[in-house]
TrEMBL record:
Species classification: Bacteria, Bacillati, Bacillota, Bacilli, Bacillales
Keywords: Coiled coil
Coiled-coil boundaries: 200-227
Name the UniProt record assigns to this protein: ParB/Srx family N-terminal domain-containing protein
Matching InterPro entries: ParB/Sulfiredoxin_sf (IPR036086)
Length: 266
């Protein structure tokens, strides 16, 4: 048992509640870009509806978060020892003017999440069994269209990865300033380069272009492999002249595959 747990037990917290916190974990902070921010109000919030938030590790229990957080937890425990558990709880039932706990209320989840100051205070409140707490709450209204757009984005990203692997390629992805730089290789040969914004709201065009290029490349590969060797060169010349969408691919990505021996023995 940690020293911190011993201190709250000595202050009057029930052992049964501490055990409950070992088996209760916070939820990850939702993607707040899926919401519209409405008004801020300072209200009394039920602690059982505060589910997690900023700098609260959802992979750990509330008990574990309490034990690994920095020394701010110890300062709060010192306050409990100084004024007593009851008075400490009472101090969080009135409006805070200097440094209020800041929560987001997500209407579709009927839950609150720490979005700025307050992760230590909320964690201690959970551990000592506080029922309610005063906090500055920003109301967040869920926008389904954004959620659908994000779901579509994630689906397309998954398809892009699957397409790369299905074609026998491998890739590197670097994130710089919210931009994904994706380099695609066959063996050691660099084949293609895509720049796709990591923010789902701004990436549809670039992601569609990347998928379209790989789809066209896949069709060319399949047609090329289906032909006898004697007709392959003629086929490429014909496609270059008749299909402007594939001309650039043949001259660039496809040419690099030929150079790298992609079709050897195939």
């Amino acid at each position: 048992m940690s020293e911190r747990v011993q201190r709250i037990l000595a202050a009057g917290v029930f052992q049964e509640h501490v055990e409950l916190m070992k088996d209760t974990s916070p939820l990850p902070l939702p993607d707040l870009s899926l919401y519209d921010e409405l008004k801020n109000v300072q209200v009394e919030v039920p602690l059982n509806k505060v589910k997690g938030g900023y700098r609260i590790d959802a992979a750990l229990s509330w008990y574990e978060n309490f034990n690994i957080m920095n020394e701010k937890i110890d300062h709060l425990l010192h306050s409990i020892q100084e004024v007593g558990l009851h008075q400490y709880i009472e101090s969080f039932q009135s409006d805070e003017t200097t440094n209020p706990i800041e929560l987001a209320y997500c209407d579709n989840l009927d839950s609150y999440f720490v979005i700025s100051d307050g992760n230590h205070r909320i964690t201690v409140a959970k551990m000592i069994g506080m029922k309610t707490i005063k906090a500055k709450v920003c109301l967040h209204k869920f926008i389904k269209d954004r959620a659908d757009l994000k779901s579509e984005f994630n689906c397309k990203r998954k398809k892009l990865k699957e397409k790369i692997e299905m074609l026998g390629f491998w890739h590197e992805c670097k994130n710089r300033d919210n931009i994904n730089e994706i380099n695609i290789y066959f063996k050691k040969q660099h084949i293609a380069y895509f720049i796709i914004p990591s923010e789902y709201r701004f990436s549809e065009g670039e992601l569609n272009e990347a998928l379209q290029l790989l789809n066209n490349l896949e069709k060319l590969i399949a047609l090329y492999r289906s032909l006898p060797m004697i007709l392959r060169r003629v086929f490429l010349l014909y496609i270059k002249r008749t299909d402007p969408n594939c001309k650039s691919i043949i001259e660039n990505e496809f040419a690099l595959l030929l150079k790298a021996g992609y079709f050897n023995n195939k």
